[in-house]
Amino acid sequence: MFKNTRKIKKWESWGIIWTIILGFLLYFAFELSGNCWIVGIISPINKSLWEYLKISYWSVVLFSLIEYHCIKKETNGFFIGKFAEILILDLIFGLGHYIFITAFGSSQLWADIIFYGTGVFLGGIISLSIMKKDVSGKLNFVGLLAMIIIGILFIYFTFYPLHIPLFMDSVTF
Q1: Where are the transmembrane segments (predicted)?
Q2: Is-contact 140 80, C-beta < 8 A?
Q3: N or C: which end of the chain has fewer CB within 10 A?
Q4: Cβ-proximal residues to 105 (8 Å cutoff; 6+ apart), any chain
Q5: CA nearest 121: which of 1, 7, 12?
């Protein structure tokens, strides 16, 4: 099954770079689009942690759409690897963001960038290590299903957010 792990490593390395660049672009996309609701599906519409986590998800997913077609014959753990990458990235970013706010009273863009970059890097390493392993088809399907469900939740809660701090704009909260 694993014909070229070097190819997987190359794509995952590019994925780390892409995710950082795309995350930066998505951060500004909604405002630059004139607050277009379609752009708001994949970019933050306010400064809430939920909307920042959406950047992580869509950055990984958009690159994965291209990556999958190039390495699908090299791994049978692509989707579970990508699901793990999203979880690690959002966990590191989310925890870092909340710990920083708790310690210093407010969030800072420079700190969020550090947490995001760290999450992208560690998530990419975890994804790569999973993709190099022999993974069952069922587990890989669970990864795909989980990614789809998370995407649906991001879209739904963009338009119908709960009234809890996770969804509240940090500027007005």
Answers
A1: 12-30, 55-71, 83-101, 113-130, 142-162
A2: yes
A3: N
A4: none
A5: 12
Q: Is the pLDDT of residue 168 over 90?
A: no
Query: What pLDDT, in 10s, does the model give residues 3-48?
Result: 678 999 999 999 999 999 999 999 999 999 999 999 999 999 998 8
**Domain range annotation of the chain:** 5-26+53-162
The DSSP 8-state label assigned to residue 46 in this structure reads S
Per the CB < 8 A criterion, the answer to whether 114 and 95 are in contact is no
Length of the chain: 173
pTM for this predicted structure: 0.91
Q: For 89, phi and psi rounded to 5 degrees?
A: -60, -50
Structure tokens at 80: 């579970």
Q: Which two tokens stand for residue 67?
A: 């990556």
Residue 75: count of CB within 10 angstroms of its CB: 27
Residue 77 — φ and ψ, nearest 5°?
-120, 30
C-alpha 11/C-alpha 85 separation (Å) is: 14
State the Cα–Cα distance between residues 10 and 65, nearest whole angstrom.
16
Cα–Cα distance for residue pair 50/30, rounded to 1 Å? 15
Amino acid at 125: I
- Give the containing element (helix H, strand E) for 5: helix 5-32
